[in-house]
Structures are given as C-alpha cells and as structure tokens.
Specification:
This protein has helices at residues 4-25, 59-70, 142-148; strands spanning 41-45, 50-55, 72-75, 85-101, 104-116, 122-126, 132-137. The protein has 153 residues and is of the alpha+beta class.
C-alpha cells in the first residue's frame, strides 16, 4: 500500500504531466501569451486538480526561476509532498538549464515550484525521459508569490 503522501504527489505529477501533454497537443492552449514569446506561467491548485491562472511569462519570472535553480542545495530527502503543498507553479524557461546535485544532473526547460505553507518550497523538474526530480533550494519566494497574486503566509 502506498503512503497517502506518495499518492498525493503522484496525482499532482500526473495531473501536471497530462496537462502539459494536452497543451503540447493543442497549440492554442500552450501558445505564447507575452511579448517575450515564452509559454505562460501557470498556477495549479493541487486540491482542485486544475490550472487556476495563466500569467504572461516575462523577464522577471525568468529571473525568479534562475535564482531558484542557482540556489539549489540538493535533492529533497522526501519523495512526496504533503497536504500543505496547495499550489504548484509551472514556469517555462527561456532556454534549458542543467541542475546538478551530488551525482545527479538534469536538464530541463520547465520548473515546477511547489508552495507548501510552513515548509520550504520545492522545485520539481522532469528529465528528458519525464523522470521527476525534487530539489531543495534557498531563495526567498515571497516576491514571486506577490507577483502571481498569492499571499506569502
């Protein structure tokens, strides 16, 4: 029997994966909505299982994502999230980035930020084979949360 936390993470990851696959199959759903030509930032409500908000991707979002990827401290010790992880943010990157932790090296063009109240945020990335990796990082996400319109508390 799988632990509830693992089931919760698998459901969230599958929902995100299915959404990104559907977006790739339907170009209008995944089209750039900003003058930068980047795919939009998406706010995913884990409990509702759907994208709540789509926001034009811009230079500031790219700066946030770069600060997260540059401040990675390692792989997360847990393989799951918990119920306090209420939102996941998909931030498509302008160009692929390689994340390194210990002997792991993952190249990705999307980062998924897990926002968990009262817990450190987590970065989820998928490698080219769609294998998930969860990383810890040390950058403050408060400015990002304010930009997307969520309270940081």
């Amino acid at each position: 029997m799988l632990p509830k936390k693992l089931i919760s993470l698998l459901i969230a990851c599958c929902s995100l994966f299915l959404y990104t696959q559907a977006a790739a199959a339907h170009p209008n759903m995944n089209r750039p909505v900003s003058e930068t030509g980047l795919k939009p930032v998406q706010v995913f409500d884990v409990a509702a299982g759907k994208v709540l908000k789509t926001i034009p991707n811009d230079k500031e979002f790219q700066t946030f994502a770069t600060s997260w990827t540059n401040s990675i401290t390692g792989l997360a010790p847990q393989i799951t999230t918990d119920p306090s992880c209420s939102f996941v943010f998909r931030v498509p990157l302008q160009k692929p980035v390689t994340l390194k932790a210990n002997d792991i090296s993952v190249t990705t063009d999307d980062v998924f930020l897990f926002y968990c109240k009262e817990k450190p945020p987590l970065l989820l990335v998928f490698d080219e084979k769609r294998k998930p990796f969860i990383f810890l990082f040390k950058t403050d996400i408060t400015p990002f949360l304010q930009k997307v319109g969520l309270p940081a508390s």
